[in-house]
Design brief:
The chain is of the alpha+beta class. Helices cover about 15% and strands about 35% of the residues. It has one domain: PK beta-barrel domain-like (M1 Pyruvate Kinase, Domain 3), CATH 2.40.33.
Length: about 150
Amino acid sequence: MMGTVEAIHIATEGAAPMRGVDEAYAKAGSGLVGDRYARGTGSFSSKAQPYQQATLIEAEALEAIRREYDISLEPGGSRRNITTRGIALNHLVGREFTVGEVRMRGIKLCEPCGHLEKLSGLEGIRKSLIHRGGLKAEVIGDGRIAVGDAIRSD
């Protein structure tokens, strides 16, 4: 399987607005440098888990919720770090893959929660993203990720 990185977003603290960047550096065992979870300042950092190191969402999922639910959610509004195109993220649970230079392991689906609903202010966002809210991943190799980079699964 192969896809591409369409957008990258980070936030310095939990509940802070996501900021789009052209590239990010990922550190194994930590996450995207400068992001809330790599800094230990995320909303759920007190329960730090490897799956909090990076989150991904399909651009196609955001397009689908616009079509099916009339909900417009921009990539940064999803609270996910990496927006992808052309790769089925649900199929990466339990598998290793590469994003740009960075090796990752898909840990579990990133199902929508009340926190996303509260921050987005979008009624119905939880329901619209069930089973397509993205992927939680562990960063297992250091490197750079840039918009336009390839995503490859073994």
